[in-house]
Amino acid sequence: MQIVVPEEFKPLWIHDADHPIVKLPHPALRRVAQPVVKVTKKTQLLVDDMLRIMRRANGVGLAAPQLGIDQRVIVIAPMDYRPMALINPVITKMEGEVLGTEGCLSLPGLYGTVKRAKYVEVDCLDRRGREITIELEGMPARVLQHEVDHLDGVLFIDKVDVATLHWAQPGEQDADAE
Ligand code: NI
């Protein structure tokens, strides 16, 4: 899909040292990321960076490829949840279907309706490298699925109902960006 960024949204699409989140069509967004072989201090520093950058961007999720980093690491902070890191996340169970509006920090200002599973179970490593299983439902499950897609080079515009795609200033939109 060809995305033409309207003039008034172009300032949001800057990618430089002060705006570390890469934007479409950066090639990092289309790569399949590599599993983390061992969770080290370096991985933890990456997680801390990701949490900080996500917060500063007012996002609810961020995947390492969005920083141009080729590793299967995501952070999510959906409403009412403590921010958490998931390393090498694998969705092991998906149930139900629900429509919802999504945006993405790598396509800032663009929103649309995406169908996602309502409930997911995820196996992953936490920030300290411990194996954990997480169950998520509703909005947190949506964020998780969006971020795991980033690890496989998939963007929400690949799954969106094209008729619902629209531009809105972040903050004036009822969905958060991921
Ligand atoms: Ni995204």
What is the CATH-assigned architecture? Answer: Alpha-Beta Complex
The number of distinct β-strands equals 8
Number of domains: 1
Low-confidence parts, pLDDT < 50 over ≥5 residues?
A: none
Q: What is the highest CATH level, the class? A: Alpha Beta
Helicity level: 10-25%
Run of helices and strands: HEEEEEEEHE
Structural shape:
globular
Radius of gyration: 15 Å
- Alpha carbon gap, first and last residue: 19 Å
Could you tell me which ligands this complex binds, including any ions or cofactors? nickel (II) ion
- Helix and strand composition category: alpha+beta
Q: Tell me about the largest β-sheet.
A: 5 strands, antiparallel
Strand order of the largest sheet: 1-2-3-6-7
Number of helical stretches of at least 4 residues: 2
Structure description:
This protein is an alpha+beta fold and 178 residues long. It has one domain (7-167): Peptide deformylase (Peptide Deformylase, Alpha-Beta Complex). Helix content is 16%, strand content 27%. The protein has helices at residues 41-56, 139-151, and strands at residues 61-63, 73-76, 84-95, 98-103, 110-116, 119-125, 131-137, 166-167. The strands form two sheets. It has a five-stranded antiparallel β-sheet with strand order 1-2-3-6-7. It is globular. Nickel (II) ion binds next to helix 2.
